[in-house]
Amino acid sequence: MTSIIVNVAVGVIKKNNALFICKRANDQHQGGLWEFPGGKIEAGESVFRALKRELQEEIGITIFSSSELLTIKHDYDDKTVKLNVHVVSNFSGEAHGAEGQDNAWVSIDELDNYEFPAANVDIISAIKAKYI
Ligand SMILES: Nc1nc2c([nH]c(=O)n2[C@H]2C[C@H](O)[C@@H](COP(=O)(O)OP(=O)(O)OP(=O)(O)O)O2)c(=O)[nH]1
Ligand SMILES: [Mg+2]
What we know:
Elements: E1 5-15, E2 18-23, E3 34-35, E4 38-40, H1 47-59, E5 62-63, E6 67-75, E7 80-88, E8 91-92, E9 103-106, H2 120-130
Parallel strand pairs: 1-7
Antiparallel strand pairs: 1-2, 1-4, 2-3, 2-9, 5-8, 6-7
């Protein structure tokens, strides 16, 4: 267990039963794997505020609201992450890879065809269990 905990806001972006996922750059932590877009929460920032900022930067959408799905703490060898996962369906703009990253709209069943970081197993279980 490492002492550094990285607090992260993660968005499950939903539109017409499809979810938007992105591929992490090779030089990032957990690089080359797929993710739900999001990023680190800055000091004093709420999860929603961080999510709004990160989703604007990474995928070019403006979010108006979000709802909590689950929070996961996961210990990777090099760091521990706390993923605050929210579902977002109320947004404007066309989601795209604003930082040049690969991306896809996928159905819940298709999530199994993509490789995600280990912490995402619980996120995907929650998505399936709640039929979000
Ligand atoms: N965004 C996101 N991060 C995830 C997921 N699963 C998972 O283990 N993580 C981990 C990887 C990273 O260690 C951390 C997220 O940080 P990040 O790299 O997205 O942070 P950021 O967007 O602020 O990026 P940077 O500016 O620091 O490069 O959480 C996921 O589904 N989405
Ligand atoms: Mg990020």
